[in-house]
Design a protein that fits this description.
17% strand; mainly beta; 3-stranded antiparallel β-sheet; binds zinc ion; globular; 1 helix; 9% helix
Length: 107
């Protein structure tokens, strides 16, 4: 990921030394469930209990950062969806995290 994008993400998150928390690369968290909608990857959680986070969304090019609220989806077991509010496709539960992602990272 371009460092300029990382810097912008840290600014959106309120600055500080959060840059160390920015992941070095991104793959889409939405799996194969979001035909036509933007890919999306979590960049950085905002400090505090809000659960809000900076996400990057992109099509083939032109990644865009935004601060979004967390999805309110909740499983009967108490797990919460890991995606952002209004995400396309199905919820993403912690147990769905697959170490082999779909491989479609940022260009
Ligand atoms: Zn995707
Ligand atoms: Zn969800």
């Amino acid at each position: 990921m371009a460092s300029a994008l990382a810097e912008s993400a840290v600014e959106l998150a309120g600055g500080g030394d959060a840059s160390e928390d920015v992941l070095p690369c991104f793959t889409c968290e939405l799996g194969d469930k979001h035909a036509g909608a933007d890919h999306a990857a979590l960049v950085l959680f905002l400090p505090g209990p809000s659960g809000r986070a900076v996400w990057v969304r992109w099509q083939r090019f032109d990644p865009r950062l935004s601060v979004v609220d967390p999805c309110v989806g909740e499983e009967s077991g108490g797990d919460v969806c890991l995606l952002f509010a209004g995400h396309p496709g199905g919820h993403l539960w912690p147990e769905d995290i697959d170490p082999v992602r779909d491989g479609r990272g940022l260009p």
